[in-house]
Amino acid sequence: MAGIDYSLKGYQRPKLTTPNGEKRLLLHSCCAPCAGEIMQALIASDIDTTLFFYNPNIHPRAEYELRKKENIRFAKKLSMPFIDADYEHKAWFERTQGQENEPERGKRCTTCFDMRFEVSAQYAQSHGFDLISSTLGISRWKDMKQINACGIKAATAFEGIGYWDFNWRKHGGSARMLELSKHEEFYQQEYCGCVYSLRDTNRWRTSQGRDKIKRGVKFYKTAIQSLD
Ligand code: SF4
Question: Is residue 212 part of a domain?
Fold first, then answer.
């Protein structure tokens, strides 16, 4: 909308409320760049939020550890509780067996989202949360309908757990996500996460005459003024 300043510094954040007055949100987080803007929006709305890092899809382990470390770094900065869940990569490979050649946003991704949401919902139910959501949907590479369908399915299976399908991309969310990533100089991953997405991204880059991904070396660069 014309006239509104959506920048991190100028945006007047609206006071968000949970869909049905839920009190405690368990926010599944995939990485710092996707989570950062959402974390700030939730804090600004005083919504009791705990981050849940459960991403057995990320390959290899060094990449998983780096993405997690970045997320922990920002959670500490904002004093947001962070749950470091297990790296159940064997279970992820078992579950996605036969879907190795699915394209991104295909059936393998549904399996991947299902697994992450089920474990999130289960943890939420057994630890006194009444709402789950995820940072996955803020990325424009993802299919929000696919993500939300998986989230709803998982929450429905666990009594007392709701799923929040808030669209974090809107009202400048995607632009602030990028702005914040640069400001915080987050690690900038160049593939979705699993070994198959790494393979397919490299295949595409090779077909375009580009170099393959060099993992662990690219960080967003500060290109903006201090927000302080
Ligand atoms: S491409 Fe991304 S969402 Fe799809 S299966 Fe791989 S890690 Fe999961």
Answer: no
